[in-house]
Amino acid sequence: MGKKKKKFDELEVNENYIPENESQKDEPAEKEPDDFPETAKKADKYAVKKSRQKPVVKSRRRKSIRPEGKIPAHFLMLITVALSVLGRLISQSGFFDSFKGNTVYIAYTVMSLVIFVLPAVIYCAARRRTPKKTYLRTFSPEVFPLIFISLALLVSLVALEQYSVAYIFSYRVTQAVPYNASVAGTVLVSALLPAICEETLLRGVLQAEYSRYGGGMTGIFACAVIFAILHFDLPFFFIYFTAGLVLGVVTHVTHSVIPAMLLHFANNLFALFLADSMTFLANERIGGAFLMILLTIACFVFLLIQLQMTERLSRKRAARLAVKQDDGDKDTEESVSAFAEQVTGENSPEIRFFPPEGAFAQRFFRLMFSPFMILAFIVFAVVVR
Known about the structure:
By secondary structure, the protein is an all-alpha fold. It has one domain. Helix content is 69%, strand content 0%. The chain has helices at 2-9, 20-26, 38-52, 73-92, 103-127, 144-169, 183-214, 216-231, 237-254, 258-273, 275-283, 288-326, 330-340, 360-368, 371-384. The chain starts with a helix and ends with a helix.
């Protein structure tokens, strides 16, 4: 140890070596030149001020998807109401009595296409709505059990309401066919054409548009009200409204208007051949309260089964989506993004009845009490008075 210490003491010290800290202390601080640009000083002050601010965290909440474009969905609804009033006046004036043979079927077909299908086609063309952005597309075969249960619910519900109205108010249903038509012609004009044409406009286009704005429940409720208005039948207004609710729920769950067309057609057949019998039983007091209780129990049971099937279908789709997303399936991502452009307003193919932004009540009341909807009710009141 002594030898090493002696060698260390004999080491020559470099006189030119200056410690780093001492060199920094001895150096004078650089002064800003007098001609330092004012813009640079302002930039430095802005940078210091910005660094002191708290970082802005962008919200993950998605922007609400509202109906956009030059032609709002409300105008499509009002045009349809106006054309329906015109068609009603034409039918009551005896215009179709002048047609003979099969020409009367052609005339009724043309009128239905002009009132419902033509405005829907023009609207979709003006708004660039492809079938993928509406409900005008096919459905998965896995929803067939739900369609059958919904059909049983719809028929039992309409039968209960028609029987109750006839029993309480002694109101008799008469199927008005203003021409001597065959059974096939009656089915075509009074059952098949309304099912296809009305559902194309109401559930296929309008419900998709309203659901974009306020969620699935808003679209279902609004189109059910419009469906009841377009029939211009005050005693059966509630019947048409509840039938529209069932058709709207089926359309929203299946993401297709075709099941609603099938249910609507079956309900029209029931109205053609069985509604008059139900009102006859009610007017003659046959069955009485017992039949109403029986139909009420049937409606309640079918409704519970439908809700259970809807919940099961929603969970099944959510689980399937989660599995495919974990596997990194690109096709699934494309289908998810395509579905987001349709009616849910969210990047998910799950069955949702409320908007993801949580503004259901505000959008619902804003839509239902809009001047357009109030005007439609005024037209309905004037026509049925």
